[in-house]
Design brief:
The complex is a heterotrimer.
Chain A (H helix, E strand, L loop, with lengths): L2 H30 L4 E6 L5 H17 L4 E6 L6 H9 L6 E4 L4 H6 L13 E7 L3 E6 L7 H5 L5 E4 L6 H13 L3 E4 L6 H8 L4 E5 H9 L3 E7 L16 H14 L2 E6 L5 H16 L1 H9 L4 E5 H11 L4 H12 L2
Parallel strand pairs in A: 1-2, 1-3, 6-7, 6-8
Antiparallel strand pairs in A: 4-10, 4-11, 5-8, 5-9
Chain B lengths: L1 H13 L1 H19 L5 H12 L4 H26 L5 H15 L3 H26 L3 H7 L2 H13 L1 H4 L5 H15 L2 E2 L6 E2 L13 H20 L12 H15 L1 H16 L7 H13 L12 H24 L5 H13 L6 H5 L1 H30 L6 H19 L4 H19 L4 H24 L7 H22 L13
Antiparallel strand pairs in B: 1-2
Chain C lengths: L5 H20 L4 H26 L33 H21 L1 H15 L5 H22 L10 H8 L5
Helix pairs in contact in C: 1-2, 3-4, 4-5
Classes of the chains: A alpha/beta, B mainly alpha, C mainly alpha.
Chain lengths: 334, 503, 175
């Protein structure tokens, strides 16, 4: 070859090398996951709705990210804090993300020091469901409407999960902000609250509709108020509340309930990979098989993706000081 | 009713597909159960995707069998190496390992495997009998009763150490109770003793604590002493015979077996009494009801039979609230519940009326699964028992690896390994000084339950919760037991002078 | 200080433990303090009681059974475990060193490095196995470990703190 050809070849190669990264990254997104292992972190122990749901999501995302292998890792502890801290601190290469309880929102709002993450900065992938909250009372209590509840002379007892759980926080916030005649009895894990109601120990709960739908269907209790959701058979709490702070508290809980079963990763995942993940998530949650199985788990499937979720989270975290006070009071109760 | 009952059995056994699945489930469940720390829960959670395609019944049978059998193989490492897989197994280790040291591993294994099988079957039977009266029974137990039952279990500590060791036994028990306070308390949510160490917030990892108290000290002792686990040389001809004699121990102690299986399954039926309550309560009961309690901790075969029947019976019982109320009776059932939902099984009162055949199929699956597991294990254990005659120095490093893996896998935080070392030091101290170690697990397991339930009971009824009828019965039992314990220990001149080997 | 038995030293250790735990619990809010106190205070009493039993000369207290035929009751507790004693101390310490070193190894270098190292070293030095035997056992065990956990169960065993950094520095594999 002549020196001329050689020069052209070298400069050609130089130019190509300079542009190669640019060329590659345009397709990087989906391609990146080919042959890689994704660690999907579940912040609870195996079993239970978060875990089953998380595994479902992982399984279907794997289907729509060709070549990838999703490995579900359980990292329970400290009320989802361990897992979430871990997710936030991991490498933002798109290979680690997971699911945790949206209730951690309350923790961040109240300034919990053990929280080493910032929900506003996390890379949001999506959420699966909406989970309207309801106020439920047992048949034996004889209460038939929200007004009746408010008008009670003697407080009745409501069951919640353990101290510090989202269930207890929400119930206590409701009781304080709405000035309800309710004594909160905490420590009922899982479905033990239903047993407690059946035993007559407590007269009601504040929880998610999906969990108690069957209880109501079996005639053991009734819903007297609802927060969020599209069902029309139960009056919306917001319509029955006047006080400004109370309305804000209700709005906070409503925004919370709209972000159920979420998946998120650490801050700063590269755009293209994040997009690939979100797209896969979207397709996965629209897959009819997925929807069928998710429904079997009892949650109203109402997926949202990416920034939509992020905006909701940001909004939820932007609360007036009075509301934060109510929250802090609820947390220190006991 | 009879028709449905046997119809379900027939269907189960005559479908090769289902039987094949059960076989696979048993094998897999046994394998997973052998390693300490790998909880059955994890394996079931991972098996769920495989089950998606199957029809409802087949899938449910598969998962249930796997779950039922998970607890069974943990005894193997408990008896042969003194390595308990979880809190339940720790009770089996107390008498199982000393038996192995006496060269009777095959006998212990024979007894415990058979006991498991029988316990599981009786549990299924109790389940079936209780179906009509289930609701009232479950509703009788509230946090007040949970607290008193936990207290009852704790009071068994007094029985586990006798004579000159009673104070030491109590100290160990209180040590366990103290450790159970580590973590977030149920009343104020304060992370006690944990501060910034998030991995302690949920309390000390039970598997780590149990391994540190029993497995590590035994292994270190083994490595130090040399020789083999069994102090007695192996006699090849007797291996089968020995195992068979172990199997026959179960019918010999039939009354104990029935009692502990029933207690186990009743405890399983009551959601809220979780963990190893059943196994330890029954171990304590076996000690207390025996005429020669000093034998316990040194190789009393009842000490192997009682916890095994109880923990398998518990699984049968825990199926009840899971199916009929959608309220899991144990943590393993919680995983199964999710799986059942996905398979399309709707737990609830309708199970009794519309899906009784499914219920019976599941009961039979438990029974048949247990039988298959027992048969398989009995065949295999003869070879396994040989390991107790191998040079301890060869075994020790493998045991160590086994233990550390179990510790890490059960609670994925690396800090648990450090905790393991620290606690092992104390556990080793107890062993070397000859203090009884069994009260430790009772304290650790039941302490948390007692505190949480007490708090709830106080919230619900204030101090008057003592006056509920069921509570009074339980209080009466506790007082009677304490009196009996005192009487036994302080009767002058009634105990024979004997060389005391420590637990 | 007269020669205290191991058991007595242990009692002292336990006493310290309970005192520390009770002390720490003073910082908790009142209700959280309840359980630690209810456990800790009696435990302290028990430890003191046991110390009293150990240190008092032989007495006719109800805690001691009938004395051994022919043997006068000795001061302090009987030797509990004759197979342990000053003659085994060095062996015990050796075994403890292996244990602690192994754990440290896991923490620093991860399971897949420490396990074969431990097996090889121990089998070779303590069990006096031949190089070949020890090597093949160690290799086999590590392989089984990998197959079971890495491949089958997909559980990530602790990779250690040093190893991933080292691996990255050498440039093998992705982050």
């Amino acid at each position: 070859m002549g020196i001329q050809t050689l020069r052209i070849a070298v400069s050609g190669a130089a130019i190509l090398t300079a542009f190669w990264p640019g060329l590659a990254s345009a397709e990087d997104g989906v391609e990146f996951f080919n042959g890689k292992t994704v660690n999907y972190i579940v912040a609870t122990a195996p079993g239970g709705v978060y875990d089953t749901n998380g595994r479902l999501v992982a399984q279907y995302m794997q289907k729509y990210l060709p070549g990838s292998t999703f490995v579900v890792q359980n990292m329970p502890g400290a009320g989802h804090l361990l897992g979430t801290n871990y997710i936030y601190a991991s490498e933002p290469d798109g290979l680690t993300f997971g699911t945790f309880n949206t209730g951690l929102l309350y923790g961040q709002l109240s300034g919990d020091e053990n929280i080493k993450f910032d929900l506003t900065k996390m890379s949001w992938i999506g959420k699966v469901a909406s989970d309207p909250r309801i106020i439920l009372v047992t048949k034996e209590s004889g209460i038939e409407s929200y007004e009746q509840l408010k008008a009670l002379q003697e407080p009745i007892k409501f069951a919640t999960a353990g101290k510090g759980s989202a269930s207890m926080i929400e119930a206590t916030m409701f009781v304080k902000a709405l000035k309800l005649p309710i004594q909160v009895v905490s420590g009922y894990n899982g479905n033990e609250d239903q047993l407690a109601m059946m035993r007559g120990e407590v007269q009601g709960v504040i929880g998610s509709r999906s969990e108690f739908q069957q209880f109501v269907d079996e005639g053991k209790g009734r819903f007297i108020a609802q927060v969020g959701g599209t069902e029309t058979d139960v009056p919306q709490l917001s319509s029955m509340v006047d006080d400004a702070t109370a309305k804000q508290v209700v709005a906070l809980i409503e925004s919370q309930s709209g972000i159920s079963r979420l998946s998120a990763g650490p801050a700063g995942i590269p755009e293209d990979r994040l997009k690939a993940l979100r797209d896969a998530y979207k397709t996965a949650t629209s897959d009819p098989e997925f929807i069928e199985k998710a429904r079997a788990l009892g949650l109203p499937v109402d997926p949202a993706v990416g920034d939509d979720v992020g905006t909701r989270v940001n909004k939820a975290l932007d609360q007036a000081p009075e509301v934060i006070n109510v929250l802090k009071e609820a947390l220190s109760e006991g | 009713m009879i028709e449905t009952m046997f119809g379900a059995l027939f269907n189960l056994v005559s479908t090769p597909h289902t039987m094949g699945l059960m076989l696979i489930a048993v094998v897999f469940g046994l394998l997973v159960g052998v390693t300490p720390g790998i909880g059955g829960k994890l394996s079931i959670a991972m098996a769920i995707p495989f089950v998606y395609g199957m029809d409802m019944v087949a899938g449910a049978v598969f998962l249930l069998t796997m779950h039922a059998v998970n607890g069974t193989s943990g005894q193997i490492s408990s008896i042969m190496f003194g390595i308990p897989g979880d809190g339940d197994d720790a009770a089996t280790t107390l008498d199982g390992y000393p038996l192995a040291k006496q060269g009777q591993a095959a006998r212990a294994l024979g007894a415990s495997i058979t006991a498991s099988g029988v316990g599981g079957i009786i549990g299924a039977v109790v389940f079936a009998i209780m179906i009509p009266v289930l609701e009232p029974v479950i509703l009788m137990f509230s946090p007040a009763e949970f607290f008193l039952i936990a207290l009852l279990g704790i009071s068994f500590i007094a029985f586990l150490a006798s004579g000159s060791k009673i104070v030491k036994g109590l100290i160990v028990g209180f040590y366990g109770l103290m450790l159970s306070t580590i973590g977030m308390d149920p009343i104020t949510g304060t992370p006690r003793y944990a501060g910034d160490m998030l991995f302690l917030w949920d309390g000390v990892s039970l598997v780590t604590a149990v391994l540190a108290m029993f497995a590590v000290p035994e292994m270190l002792a083994l490595a130090t002493k040399g020789g083999s686990i069994s102090a007695v040389a192996m006699d090849k001809a007797f291996s089968y015979r020995q195992m068979f004699s172990g199997v026959m121990e179960v019918p010999r102690h039939w009354w104990l077996v029935v009692r502990t299986s029933v207690i186990g399954s009743v405890i399983g039926m009551i959601p809220g009494l979780g963990g190893s309550t059943a196994a330890w309560l029954c171990y304590g009961h076996a000690v207390q009801s025996s005429k020669t309690p000093e034998r316990f901790g040194k190789g009393a075969i009842e000490g192997v039979i009682a916890p095994e029947t109880a923990s398998n019976g518990k699984e049968g019982g825990s199926l009840l609230p899971t199916l009929f109320f959608g309220i899991p009776g144990s943590s393993g059932m919680a995983v199964l519940l999710g799986a059942f939902l996905i398979l399309g099984i709707q737990p609830g009162a309708m199970m009794v009326t519309k899906h009784l055949d499914l219920v019976w199929t599941l009961i039979w699956a438990l029974v048949v699964g247990n039988l298959i597991a027992v048969a398989m294990l009995l065949v295999v254990c003869r070879w396994l028992a040989v390991l107790t005659f191998v040079n301890g120095r060869m075994l020790a490093p493998f045991i160590l690896v086994f233990v550390t893996i179990g510790c890490f896998v059960s609670d994925v935080q690396w800090q648990n390994l450090v905790v393991l070392v620290l606690f092992s030091a104390i556990g080793y101290g107890f062993q070397r000084a000859g203090w009884p170690r069994s009260p430790f697990v009772i304290g650790l397991v039941l302490g948390g339950q007692a505190e949480a339930s007490l708090h709830q009971a106080l919230q619900l009824w204030g101090y008057s919760f003592f006056l509920r009828p069921m509570s009074l019965v339980l209080i009466g039992m506790i007082v009677a037991l304490m009196v009996y314990a005192f009487y036994r220990n302080f009767r002058p001149g009634s105990r024979q002078p004997s060389v005391e080997i420590n637990t | 200080m007269k020669n205290l038995s191991f058991s007595t030293w242990l009692t002292i250790v336990m006493l310290t433990f309970f005192i520390v735990m009770v002390g720490l619990s003073m910082e908790f809010p009142a209700k959280a303090r309840f359980m630690p106190l209810i456990v800790g205070l009696p435990a302290i009493a028990l430890c003191l009681l046991q110390l009293g039993i150990d240190l008092m000369p032989a007495s006719r207290s109800a805690f001691h059974g009938a004395p051994r035929a022919g043997l006068a009751q000795q001061t302090g507790p009987e030797p509990e475990l004759p197979e342990f004693g000053p003659h085994t101390v060095s062996q015990e310490l050796l075994m403890w060193t292996y244990f602690v070193a192994f754990i440290a190894g896991i923490l620093a270098f991860g399971f897949y490095v420490s396990v074969p190292v431990l097996l090889l070293t121990f089998l070779r030095r303590e069990a006096e196995a031949s190089w070949r035997f020890a090597f093949s056992l160690a290799a086999a065990a590590t392989l089984v470990l990998y197959l079971m956990f890495g491949a089958l169960l997909q559980i990530q065993l602790h990779p250690g703190f040093v190893t991933p950094w080292m691996v990255q520095a050498i440039g093998i594999g992705a982050a």
